[in-house]
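hey
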C-alpha cells in the first residue's frame, strides 16, 4: 500500500508556516482508537508516536473516555482555575494513594498550567526563589520546552534561535557519555564549581532528563544519575528531573528516575498525566520548598477539570498494581530484540539502537537516512518521528497499551522501511 498525500489547501493557505508534523505526515486525520489513526480517505496508520508521549494509554481509551463522557454529561465543572472541585480532589487523592505514598514520596503538588513548559518555568522560578540565585545548569542535547525560560536550558540550536533574544542564566554541561567515556563523569562540572576563577555563578539548580527524548533518545545510566544527585546535594543545588515525556510509565516505573533510586527535589510532569491527551501538567516538590506566596505563580487554564477526571481514571485503572509496568518492560524487551536484529543487518551503515521501556531510537551514520526511513514508514502506514540535533535518530514511542501483535506489525514495517531506504 502506498499512500498519496491529499490536497491540503486550507492548511497551506491559512495556517502558519510554523506547522511541522503535518509536513512529515501529509494526511488529514479523522479518527483514532487504541494504537491506530484513520485519515479521511480511510487509510489506517499504526501509531508509534503517541502524540509525542501524551497518549501513553492509546487514542480514545474506552475506560478514560467513559469517565470523561459521564463527567461532561452531568455538567461537571470544566474550567476551574485553582478552585477546589470534586474532580481535582479525586485526582489528588488517587495521585497521593497510588503514586506518592507507595513510593514514600512527600511531594507537594502544584498545577502550573496546561503544558510541559509551564511546569518547567515554574520549577525554575521556584528553584531561584528558594536558593536566591539565578544560574541553572542543564545538559547538552536537552529539551525542556519552547517558552523563554525553558529554551534557556534547552540545547538544540535551531529551537534556541527562535527566541530572538539572548537566552541567559543557563549553563550547559556534558550529558552522560557525551565524550564517549573518555572523560570521567562530572569532572568539568565539579572543577568549575570548586574553582573561584571559573566564571560559573553558583547554580540554584540542575535540570535533567533521565532519557533525552527530543535530544536523540540518549539514556542516562542509573549510576550517572546517582552521582549527579550526590553532587547537587554536596554543592547546595536543587535537582530538577524533567519527567514530562519519560514519566507516567514510559520507561516502566511511573517516574523514570525510580530505577536510579534517587529522589529529586523538584519533578515536572505533563504529557500523559491526563491519560487522554488533554492538556495538564504538574510541578512536584519537596514540602520544605513550598515557599510560594498565594497567586505568585498562576495561569488561567491550570484548572482543566476534564483532564483531572481522565487523570484519576488513568491512575485507578493502570497504577493500582504493577501490571502495566511489567507489560511495558516486556514490550520493551520485544522491541529491543527486533532492533538488535535490524542493526545487525545494517551494521555497514553504522546502525545502532538505544532506549528504555517503550522509548527507543535507531541511529544511522548517514544522518539523512532517519528522515527517509520515517517517510517510507508513513507511506507504509506507520507513524514515526525523528529526533536528535540533526534529526539523525528514528524514534519509537508506541502506546504503553500496545499488544504483542501490534508491536510486531510496527517493527516489521520499520524493518521494511529501513531495507527500502538503503
Amino acid at each position: 500500500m502506498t499512500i498519496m498525500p491529499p490536497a491540503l489547501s486550507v492548511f497551506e493557505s491559512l495556517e502558519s508556516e510554523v506547522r511541522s508534523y503535518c509536513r512529515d505526515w501529509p494526511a488529514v486525520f479523522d479518527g483514532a482508537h487504541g494504537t491506530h489513526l484513520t485519515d479521511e480517505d480511510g487509510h489506517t496508520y499504526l501509531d508509534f508516536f503517541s502524540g509525542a508521549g501524551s497518549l501513553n494509554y492509546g487514542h480514545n481509551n474506552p475506560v478514560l473516555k467513559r469517565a470523561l463522557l459521564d463527567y461532561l454529561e452531568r455538567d461537571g465543572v470544566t474550567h476551574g482555575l485553582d478552585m477546589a472541585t470534586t474532580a481535582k480532589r479525586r485526582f489528588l487523592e488517587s495521585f497521593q494513594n497510588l503514586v506518592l505514598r507507595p513510593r514514600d514520596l512527600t511531594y507537594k503538588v502544584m498545577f502550573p498550567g496546561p503544558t510541559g513548559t509551564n511546569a518547567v518555568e515554574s520549577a525554575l522560578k521556584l528553584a531561584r526563589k528558594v536558593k536566591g540565585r539565578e544560574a541553572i545548569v542543564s545538559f547538552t542535547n536537552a529539551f525542556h520546552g519552547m517558552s523563554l525560560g525553558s529554551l534557556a536550558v534547552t540545547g538544540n540550536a535551531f529551537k534556541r534561535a527562535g527566541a530572538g533574544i539572548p537566552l541567559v542564566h543557563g549553563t550547559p554541561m556534558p550529558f552522560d557519555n557525551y565524550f564517549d567515556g573518555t572523560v570521567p563523569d562530572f569532572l568539568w562540572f565539579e572543577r568549575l564549581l570548586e574553582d573561584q576563577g571559573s566564571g560559573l555563578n553558583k547554580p540554584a539548580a540542575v535540570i535533567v532528563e533521565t532519557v533525552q527524548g527530543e535530544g536523540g533518545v540518549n539514556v542516562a545510566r542509573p549510576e550517572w544519575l546517582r552521582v549527579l544527585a550526590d553532587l547537587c546535594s554536596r554543592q547546595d543545588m536543587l535537582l530538577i528531573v524533567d519527567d514530562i515525556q519519560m514519566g507516567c510509565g514510559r520507561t516502566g516505573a511511573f517516574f523514570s528516575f525510580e530505577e536510579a533510586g534517587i529522589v529529586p527535589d523538584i519533578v515536572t510532569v505533563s504529557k500523559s498525566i491526563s491519560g487522554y491527551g488533554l492538556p495538564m501538567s504538574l510541578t512536584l516538590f519537596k514540602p520544605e520548598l513550598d515557599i510560594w506566596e498565594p497567586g505568585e505563580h498562576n495561569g488561567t487554564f491550570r484548572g482543566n477539570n476534564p483532564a483531572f477526571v481522565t487523570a484519576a481514571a488513568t491512575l485507578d485503572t493502570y497504577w493500582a498494581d504493577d501490571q502495566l509496568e511489567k507489560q511495558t518492560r516486556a514490550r520493551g524487551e520485544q522491541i529491543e530484540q527486533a532492533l538488535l536484529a535490524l542493526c545487525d543487518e545494517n551494521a555497514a551503515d553504522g546502525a545502532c539502537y538505544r532506549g528504555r521501556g517503550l522509548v527507543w531510537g535507531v541511529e544511522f551514520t548517514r544522518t539523512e537516512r532517519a528522515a527517509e526511513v520515517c517517510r517510507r514508514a508513513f507511506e507504509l502506514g506507520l507513524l514515526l518521528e525523528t529526533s536528535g540535533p540533526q534529526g539523525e535518530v528514528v524514534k519509537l514511542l508506541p502506546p504503553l497499551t500496545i499488544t504483542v501483535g501490534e508491536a510486531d506489525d510496527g517493527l516489521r514495517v520499520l524493518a521494511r522501511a529501513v531495507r527500502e531506504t538503503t
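The first helix runs from residue 9 to 14. The mean pLDDT is 96.
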